[in-house]
Amino acid sequence: MAGEFSAVKVTDTVWWVGAIDWGLRDFHGYATQRGTTYNAYLVMADKVTLIDTVKRPFLDEMMARVTSVVEPSRIDYVVSNHTEMDHSGSLGEAIAAAEPEKVFASKMGVKALGRHFDLGREVTAVADGETLSLGNMNLTFVETRMLHWPDSMFTYLAEEELLFSSDAFGMHLASSERFDDEIDPSILEHEGARYFANILLPYAPLITKLIARVGELGIPIRTICSDHGPVWRSDVAGVIQRYANWAAQKRSRKAVVVYDTMWQSTARMAKAVTEGLIGSGVSAKLMPLKSSHRSDVAAEMLDAGALVVGSPTLNNGLFPTVADLLCYLKGLKPKGLVGAAFGSYGWSGEAVRDLAGMLEAMKVELVGDPVKSLYVPGDEELAECRSLGMRVADVLKERCADG
Ligand code: FEO
Predict the structure, then answer these.
(1) Is 372 in the pocket of ligand 1 (CB under 6 A)?
(2) Is the CB of 151 under 6 A from ligand 1?
(3) What is the mean pLDDT of the chain?
(4) Closest ligand 1 atom to the C-alpha of 148?
(5) CA distance 113 to 44
(6) Ligand 1, atom 3: nearest CA belongs to which residue?
(7) Number of domains in the chain
């Protein structure tokens, strides 16, 4: 009997049995404007295997999709590639329903699962490079520590040349389509970049190493089944190349000017800085924090060469939205940026000093002295702001070859 939810066939032996979260708009401070999916997969080998589960509120959806292919009691193995609860939240219930012979996770995964759940049974640790026989098929496990949790791992299904890649190569995108070739490529590029910039950027050096390692292993990959967003079956080489490019953090002749303002003084300064940048022939993106989310700024910073930040002084310190942004960006550990600071004040002016300090703590190389304006900027301060923009542009033109 057809139920409310059905599985989607990925290959002859692999089915998508995940869930679509159309309404998600925040993922740990990252604005997910298009919702997301939690992807779980069923491998219909001699040993029927469930790879990952879904966020707890979506348990019934996942179980209904599983049941559309096979009775849950026929599941022999469960593999947990990642303990974060958008993928392990339904693990306990799935195990209770399936009563599988074995549950597998990485060594760190076994520890992490133990800290999250009382599964009431043993979880078997698998080693990096270990292969598990499913009878007629084989799964090989590849530890990907800190991509993006210590427990994270990939699982490779050799007979299908298919990689279950956990969060990697994913994106937050709810859609009725399950495959990359069914979705507008510009949406995939946009949401993929946002996901990388907001979640994976701190681990960029590890991603570069991992891509090199996979290349050295010579493992053929025809399909990538990530835990979020579409299955990659058409543009596999393309998505791997995009990851390699993003991880390299190649900087372009683009500056992001981000600010907040109280009485438009810092806003006027921001516009003058931006005019200086544009007039010197580089690309500039002006992002007022009243209308730009921190994750939009993070996404713009993925290829920008400069971060220029403005803040009014409020109660002897940074404006709260500016402090929020810098705290968020610092955690993402962007590399190779130049930057500058500016802002207005009434009587003390600590914000500009604090801004410069925070940018330096982020290892952003400051160009020129910060520009401060008492109350409302006059011609002199606006000229200083234009000049600051021009100096940043000159450095970008010197260091970044592209336009
Ligand atoms: Fe999609 Fe790290 O969880």
Answers:
(1) no
(2) no
(3) 97
(4) 2
(5) 25
(6) 84
(7) 2
Q: Is the CB of 52 under 6 A from ligand 1?
A: no
Starting at the edge strand found earlier in the chain, the sheet holding 124-126 runs 8-9, 14-16, 41-44, 48-51, 77-80, 102-106, 124-126
For residue 158, give the CATH number of its domain: 3.60.15.10
Q: Which pLDDT band holds residue 2 (cuts at 50, 70, 90)?
A: low
Predicted local confidence at residue 1, as pLDDT: 43
The confidence band for 214, taking pLDDT boundaries of 50, 70 and 90, is confident
Question: Is residue 402 a part of any domain in this protein?
Answer: no
Q: Which residues contact 394 (CB under 8 A, 6 or more apart)?
A: 280
Contact present, 213 and 150 (Cβ < 8 Å)? no
Protein residue with least CA distance to atom 1, ligand 1: 167
Name the one residue in this structure whose structure tokens are 């993006």. Answer: 148
Give percent above pLDDT 90 in the chain: 96
* CB distance 228 to ligand 1 below 6 Å: yes
- Examine the domain organization and report whether 267 and 243 are in the same domain: no
Residues designated as active site = 28, 82, 84, 86, 148, 167, 195, 228
Question: Can you tell me which atom of ligand 1 is nearest the CA of 199?
Answer: 2
pTM, entire model: 0.96
264 and 242 housed in the same domain: no
